[in-house]
Amino acid sequence: MKNVFYLFIAVVLIISSTSLAQDLKLTGWPYEVDVVQENLDRFGGQYDTSAVFEPFPSNEYHDKMVANFVSGTDYDVVYVRDSFLAEWAAAGWIVPITGLDGVEELLADLPQGIIDQLSFEGEVYGLPYYSGTNVFAYNSDHMSQAGIDSPPDSWEAMLSQAQMLKDAGVSDHPILVELRRGENYIIRTLEIIAAAHGGKLFTDDYEPIFQEDNSAVKQALMWLKQGLESGLIDEASLSVEEASEVMMTGSHSFTLTTDYTLKAMNDPEKSNVAGNMMNAMIPGTNGAESGTIGYVRLYSITTDAEDKDAAWQLVQYLGGRDATGEYYVPKRWALEFGLGFSPAPLYEDDEVRGSISGWIDPDLLQEQANYAISRPYRFVPFFSDWETEAWADLQEILLGNGDMDKILDGLAEEWNELKEEYDY
Questions:
Q1: Once rounded to an integer, what is the mean pLDDT over residues 357-379?
Q2: pTM of the prediction?
């Protein structure tokens, strides 16, 4: 009898340990938690491996995960924002997927600009949760009222058209862009306009070039300054938090925005200009046909994941193709919630095209993604220190309160000091 009892206990322990070994844990921020778990349940049905979602509050996610990593995490797969990819990769908390089975086929479906956003020091660290690019958006009704047939094809044409819109009484200040101090405002806007002038802030080796004579950044600043001084760019740009929300009132004609915001702009329940907000290619100059920046949120495998093969299977399912070869999860996010995506096959998917065509031109969106620049400098650990100091200085240039060359030289010197301090 005793032997039977011990045999029973042994069987229970084996079953329990097997169950625990099969259980994968995903964490992230709590967006549509029920949908995430539904997707994980479907994963379990396809791969006979259970997975659970245990999110942290969005505003606490980074700090809680850092503490979790330091103490030894039991999460297998994690959401990662591109803004802290370098920190987590450099610390060794997440592992590259470069070279894993099937990864090259999945990366072949992504534009290079998005792959760059998934990478740190030449290694790819995950697949997209959602991703996209910044676009130029315009109010087509405003254009018609002013007798303008097509969106501007150059930055000079944008100011000229803005003057026509102003003269026609359509908008007092036709252009609204985000130039406030803070993460993802003034520097992001500069990056977009500089990219469309054929340049960027730093080289891929982290050398500052924004201070050089006639740099793309200087040209972008001069264009912005000209627009502000003429009143064609609304001075509210220096303080606005969500330009897309202001655009929905119908007060402005042109903006630069993330692609997914056009969904809300064209939603009649949310917007006064629904049906009139269109996307167009961001104008180019200096030999650049266009230019933009990408954004990405990704799924990554933790270094502490015990079964990395199973974790990679989950990452492929969530950010790539499922067991049937379908981009099921990215497609669901696009259809039901309008989240941005990057895999090329989804642009050709009839359901996806039918869904997003009501609020954005998918062909122009896909074309725009091809002009997204790489920004590896954003992933160095001292970028946030530098940009925090740069916000006010860049605004001073736009307000005409300081010498542009002197200010930019100073910012370049500050960057080089940080670069030396961090031994980059």
A1: 91
A2: 0.82
